Amino acid sequence: MIDTTSSKAPLFQPTLMGDLELPNRIVMSPLTRMRAANPGLVPTELHAEYYAQRASAGLIISEGASISPEAVGWADTPGLWSKEQLQGWSHVLEAVHAKGGRMVAQLWHTGAISHPDFGAAPMSASDVNIGYESTTPLGRKPTVAPRPMTLSDIHRTVSDYAKAARNAMSVGFDGVQIQANYLYLIAQFLNRTTNLRTDEYGGSIEKRARFLFEVIEAVLQEVDPRRVGVRIGPMNEVGAFAANDETLPMAEYAIRELSDYGLSHALIMGATTDFAGTSLEPLAGDAMFRHLRSIFKGTLIANVGMDAERGNRLIAEGSADLIAFGRPFISNPDLVERLAVGAPLAEIDWNTVYASGARGYTDYPRHISTAVA
């Protein structure tokens, strides 16, 4: 049995992700927190303080950063397209690096999860309402049917991903991660239910994946592949994203193809809902990571429902290389240190997760502990 509080435990071993040296294998996963509550969606000094508090993570992945104005679909979340936003992110990176941290930017386009309250009709692969909720400037509202993207829209959006990647690297991010999972734009192209196109971007698994790979190839024109990752994985969610018989084959195809790009990592999301009775039932628990580990040849980051025991086990058995923690990092800025000494974790104040200001963001106390044994 692994001693999870030993400095020799897998989670605390240094590793190389692409060409980026990480002092441990604990990753802070992207967490939307809605603190860019200003007209320009600019990261602030509060963001800098928040991320710097968590710089002991082997790697920080930023909250989703919208690649363009039309990519925005969640209120008060920061962007990566304007001069002011880049200046804000520059201050964040300075603070994180001053604490010895490493941070990559998650490139985000919400697609059909957006809403007309943001100023324009949302766009997606097809005009399918995904049956979810949009967090708009006027509150949570049901999603609407999006506008199908024209070829010009697709080409412009691919270019926006590349520009956002270039912007991220220009202000000091240590890499980028393309959000190709959950309910957002790239996943809307991959999903058979939300992609009803009959052109070169729809139909077969290979055609539905075309948009993803065009985005990756455009980003690789701007950033060394050793600094580019993708967040991806099969899922069973509500409405249009309920698992179907092509959910797993699509994920397997995309992840297998990703192996050929020499990317820094693939972050694989585990089950966020119950897989029982769906096509994904055989992948419940750790089976997801064991299965996809056999397909993806690069650095694999496992995410969702992680604790020290599970993370150490997945690394030790070779099912993952790094472990991403999400919710625990919200209320435990010193999560790495707590895990190292087996200290209890602070509870989340759920009333302040999606809010504004420092309360429930930068005011969680640190645990005073001894050094790692």
Features:
TIM Barrel; globular; alpha/beta; two-stranded antiparallel sheet; eight-stranded parallel barrel; 373 residues; 15% strand; 11 helices; single chain
Task: Explain how this protein is built.
With 373 residues, the protein is an alpha/beta fold. Helices cover 28% and strands 15% of the residues. The chain contains eleven helices and 14 strands. Strands 3-4-5-10-11-12-13-14 form an eight-stranded parallel barrel, surrounded by six helices. A two-stranded antiparallel sheet has the order 1-2. β4, α2 and β5 form a beta-alpha-beta unit. α1 (45-53) packs parallel to α2 (83-98) and α3 runs parallel beside α6 (210-220). It starts with 14 loop residues before the first strand and ends in a 32-residue tail after the last helix.
Secondary-structure map:
Blueprint (H helix, E strand, L loop, with lengths): L14 E3 L2 E3 L3 E3 L16 H9 L5 E8 L16 H16 L4 E6 L14 E2 L8 E4 L2 E4 L4 E2 L2 H20 L5 E4 L5 H6 L14 H4 L1 H11 L7 E5 L14 H12 L6 E5 L17 H7 L6 E4 L4 H9 L5 E4 L1 H5 L3 H7 L32
Parallel strand pairs: 3-4, 3-14, 4-5, 5-10, 6-9, 10-11, 11-12, 12-13, 13-14
Antiparallel strand pairs: 1-2, 7-8
Helix pairs in contact: 1-2, 3-6
Largest sheet: 8 strands, parallel, barrel
Q: How would you write the strand order of the largest sheet?
A: 3-4-5-10-11-12-13-14
The ordered string of helix (H) and strand (E) elements is EEEHEHEEEEEHEHHHEHEHEHEHH
Q: Give the structural class.
A: alpha/beta
* Model regions low in confidence, pLDDT < 50 over at least 5 residues: none
Give a count of the beta strands, DSSP E runs of length 2 or more.
14
CATH fold name: TIM Barrel
Mean pLDDT: 96
